[in-house]
Design goal:
3 copies of one chain form a homotrimer.
Chain A lengths: L16 H19 L12 E6 L4 H13 L3 E5 L1 H7 L5 H10 L4 E6 L5 H7 L4 E6 L5 H15 L6 E5 L6 H12 L3 E5 L13 E2 L3 H6 L3 E4 L14 H8 L3 H4 L7 E3 L22 H19 L4
Parallel strand pairs in A: 1-2, 1-3, 3-4, 5-6, 5-8, 6-7, 8-9
């Protein structure tokens, strides 16, 4: 399997474009099987997968666990609380290598930006998947979002993605920039100035949300990370007035455009209640697709397909 | 499968009498198989079951988990501690629907009385089992108790069940009233006045325990929920004097009568030490039977039998 | 299976010498299979194993879990945090017997020295494995260490094992004394006087580490348990000066001698950084072998091999 560097997923650059196509094609067929009420082949039977989550993230953990078990793998969970008991005098790296020494077939890691994840992947004798790395990267979220868009529109080519809100603090957004562009999409960012200071070249910035909405195929909300704005002149009221998606603002959105969000939504902030009742709202599809994309990813990394 | 409303178990009314018979018959055959050292058919192979426990309840959780795995299902656990990490700004319902969106085959819920469990069951596209709902209902406990009595006596018809103690705060007792009566049993309640104010019609109340014991087939102790009596004029000494089952009081109990308790026992309060050495003491059987009854329940709800 | 008393493992005396040989032989063949990329036979398929860990020990728990699942068993985990929710008014014994009543096939127990583990094993109707019992015994750690030495040297006969450091507080050391001697090894202990007061007869004590190192086949470091030395005149600096293994001291060690440690290492105390880069350093092998030895142990106790 040559489309992954070191058979691991550090970030979206770990995948070749051909690797992504293969991944999405396999995710699609797993999706079709499960939706038809069939059991997918237990292609990971006998595989042992360690979920090493040093940060709380029940949602992503469950998604990986469900994906792994659907294909017959066994999961061993080492999460934040257990890590503390594991860590008597140990560094994070000691813990990683201890888990590695138990010889699982795959390690899935969620960790803060200070963890030497690149070094672990470089030296690991088994595949490692980045399941969220500080505010640096969250490649599987970007992959499942791209898959969701492609699954509905057929392709990302020339699709206009509008990313709204707390971009600077979003590891998701940074993975999106790189992945979605590579797949041919055009990205526009819209949010308060204080939340959009770190926008790379090649990404459009638009200050007027209502105007930007009229020309998009996907409205992608991002969670406002209040805990990061405590010491700043952040006004929640002003955010809601200018960026919250409500029934009135929704009228600016093209009928075919999708409403997405990596979750969890701050209801009343990014979205007002009622938004979830529109057929355009695809957050539940994103979550469902996450299981299929992660299943396909593990299968490919483990060389089982 | 028409004997369950919406293929879910909200309370004992979710089952038809014919549904209960079928459930007990299947539980009995799983019990016989396991007791004979045989592996039951993996009728739930490939099924994924989420245990969503927002209240601490390791005992019930383990029982469901063991039941599910015995039939080949996979369990994903979201418990109290994980719920808190799951809940960044989320309502309990958001969490439920997030779990639902991951497409498990069944969700087992333990929650406080404030949770909109009825609404979830109404709208869910997959079966949901109530594994304890505030002080409102705990149908699987009632089912396993009824099964235990029927398994020993052959039937509940005309059996006299004496429920002793903290009835008002017991979700178990409230489920018992409804289930055991439907199956033909006669229920008498005995306990301090302050603990027996909410007794529905058709249930006898008897104040003299020694007298009531002489005419019962089952002595069902209930856990005294001390945490609910802090601000009241509750006297532990007086409770023990009048309601605790000890060697002396045991002499009033007919030789064939069963001693049961949903657990965990406050030893020295509901029962004095030594009671567990009598052959009439069936608490361990209740726990064992819980696994069989829950296994049969999941099998029937999932249409796998 | 006659080589285990009561089909349980309380301590290293629970095994006959013939039982140990059989165990190591089976562990070796599981190791060979897994190293060759083969799946071991699912000899524990359908077995349910409860891990009852009343003390934090993620490392040992994971090792058992991985071993059990490798052979197809299902694990149910009751750990410290869950125990507290389990324990409403319950004694540790109540909890044990509640778990026992759910009819798992095996219970693996980690507990403090105050727990009546011997009594549980005596009365249990199913096999029980001691996975760490206060500071009294940790037989599977001793077994995996013995296996690691035998796997490299072919036999323990006449091998000189040097155990260094905090011997008094080490349940591992006490299990080592008994097991390694029975297998023919010669044991020397070296450490500060305050840490080596409880040495049984037949074990040599040597005060000069550099001298002792020159004549050993295995240098076994032990974790300094700082939390036990708070009120004592323990000097970390003095410990490091006299007992820490660093590059300079390593020159006293014969080229073929192994460096072992039950883990986790206090880096900078028992070992200085860099020690792990020597080919003699076998801690990762110990951890790997732990999975194989525990798998073989469970297989034999459950009569599946």
């Amino acid at each position: 399997m040559t489309s992954f560097k070191n058979r691991s997923l550090l970030n979206v650059e770990s995948l070749s474009t051909e690797g992504i196509e293969r991944l999405f094609s396999r995710a699609k067929s797993i999706k079709n099987q499960i939706n038809a009420g069939q059991l997918p082949q237990p292609t990971l039977a006998g595989k042992q997968i360690v979920l090493f989550f040093t940060e709380a993230s029940t949602r992503t953990k469950l998604s990986f666990q469900m994906a792994a078990q659907r294909l017959g793998a066994q999961c061993l969970i080492v999460d934040d609380q257990q890590r503390s008991s594991l860590s008597k005098g140990e560094s994070l790296s000691d813990t990683f290598w201890t888990l590695h020494s138990l010889r699982p077939d795959l390690i899935i890691v969620r960790c803060g930006g200070e963890a030497p994840l690149e070094d672990w992947i470089e030296k690991s004798r088994i595949p490692v998947i980045n399941a969220g790395f500080g505010s640096i990267a969250h490649p599987t979220q970007a992959l499942l979002d791209a898959f969701t868009i492609e699954d509905i529109f057929g392709s990302l080519q020339d699709r206009r993605i509008l990313i709204v809100g707390d971009v600077d603090h979003s590891r998701v957004a940074h993975s999106h920039f790189r992945l979605l562009k590579r797949l041919g999409a055009k990205i526009t960012v819209c949010g308060p100035k204080m939340m959009t200071t770190l926008i790379p070249q090649g990404i459009d910035v638009e200050s007027d949300l209502d105007k930007a909405m009229k020309n998009c195929d996907v409205f992608m909300g991002l969670r406002v990370q209040f805990e990061r704005h405590r010491n700043q002149s952040f006004s929640k009221e002003s955010y809601i007035k200018n960026y919250s998606l409500d029934e009135k603002r929704l009228q600016n959105l093209p009928k075919e455009a999708l409403i997405m969000h990596p979750g969890p939504v701050n209801w009343g902030v990014e979205f007002q209640e009622g938004v979830e009742n529109h057929a355009q709202f695809k957050m539940w599809d994103q979550k469902q697709n996450g299981v299929f994309v992660r299943a396909a990813l593990m299968e490919i990394l483990l060389g089982s397909h």
